[in-house]
Amino acid sequence: MYLFTKENIHQMELEAWKKDAINRFDERMMDKEKHFPCIPATMGYQLNRFCFGFVPNPQNPLATKELALLLKEYSIVYKSIGAYTSLVIFYEPSPERAGNPTVEQYEQTFWEQLNLLSKIDEMEWPSHIPADSMHSMWEFCFHGEQYFMYCATPSHSNRYSRHFPYFMLAITPRWVLEKFTSSPLHAEKIKAKIRDRLANYDSISIHPDLNTYGQKDNYEWKQYFLRDDQTTLSKCPFHKKNREQE
Predict the structure, then answer these.
(1) What's the pTM value of the predicted model, to 2 decimals?
(2) What's the rounded Cα separation, in Å, for the pair 35 and 197?
(3) CA atoms within 13 A on the CB side of 45
(4) What is d(CA 81, CA 32) in angstroms, rounded to the nearest whole number?
(5) Domain boundaries defined on the chain
(6) What is the pLDDT along the chain (246 residues), one digit of tens a residue?
(7) Edge-to-edge strand ranges of the sheet holding 50-55
(8) Which is nearest to 116 in space by CA: 72, 174, 58?
(9) Is the CB of residue 170 less than 8 Å from the CB of residue 148?
(10) Which residues partner with 89 through β-bridges?
(11) End-to-end CA distance of the chain
């Protein structure tokens, strides 16, 4: 498996589903009529700062292993790519899908992937990250790096900002987000524009769990997978094992 960029991915001989996934993503990011809400994401894509990877269907045991290899490689190189970078992962669809999974089923799959991914992480989490996911400073980490996780699924319809024809992850380093917020006035203006875009993009109100990292009433895990309504899980499904427990 490889990390691709927008520049080289179109030069590769890809399977049909992979070509379709990247073309759909390009359409989403470059749509001039229905602007994707996350302005930094569209900037990163246009600047060729995004990396892309493809993994098997999440039911395949190899999916998490390949995701781990891609995220490890990205963790090593992302700072050399620069501001606005993210890693986008597309999952192969199931060839014998018996009906479409519900949003809640995709939610379960998402957390299963994160739990399995953390289980095979070769490095300890940064010491300043709390173990309790209900702490305002908690967030997912891998290979010693802090990440914001975004999940989109084919089953989202009301919250179109979380819809994509393939099960998809967008993984953004905290380092990137800190660069963005290093100019508070500019960041607040962009955040306001993002919320305006969200209100027009989705056919449902902005989810109440969307918040800012570090604020006392903020819980990062609740923002990773937003449901297609205003509900949320009452408890974080992520369970990190300590090395001593293994």
Answers:
(1) 0.95
(2) 7
(3) 19
(4) 26
(5) 4-125+132-228
(6) 689 999 899 888 999 999 999 999 999 999 999 999 999 999 999 999 999 999 999 999 999 999 999 999 999 999 999 999 999 999 999 876 557 899 999 999 999 999 999 999 999 999 999 999 999 999 999 999 999 999 999 999 999 999 999 999 999 999 999 999 999 899 999 999 999 999 999 999 999 999 999 899 999 999 999 999 999 999 999 998 664 444
(7) 4-5, 50-55, 86-91, 168-173, 145-152, 140-142
(8) 58
(9) no
(10) 53, 169
(11) 28
Cα–Cα distance measured from residue 73 to residue 75, given in angstroms and rounded to the nearest whole number: 5
Q: Can you tell me the distance from the alpha carbon of 86 to that of 175, in angstroms, rounded to the nearest whole number? A: 11
Instruction: For residue 226, give the amino acid letter.
Output: L
What is d(CA 7, CA 10) in angstroms, rounded to the nearest whole number?
Answer: 7
Q: Which residues contact 221 (CB under 8 A, 6 or more apart)?
A: 133, 138, 139, 140, 236, 238
> What residues form DSSP beta bridges with 163?
153
Q: Which two three-digit tokens encode residue 167?
A: 């099960």
Distance CA 118, CA 134 (A): 18
Nearest by Cα to 172 from 192, 152, 195, 148: 148
Q: How far apart are CA 72 and CA 145, in angstroms?
A: 9
Name the token pair of 149: 């996780």
Place of tokens 């970078």: 85
- What is the C-alpha to C-alpha distance for residues 198 and 204, in angstroms, rounded to an integer? 9
Provide the b/e sequence for 51-89 (b: ≥16 CB within 10 Å).
Answer: bbbbbbebeeeebbbbbbbbbbbbbeebeebeebbbbbb
In the chain, the amino acid numbered 168 is M
Tokens 């875009």 belong to which residue? 197
**Tokens coding 50:** 């995004």
Closest among 204, 190, 213 to 160, alpha carbons compared? 204
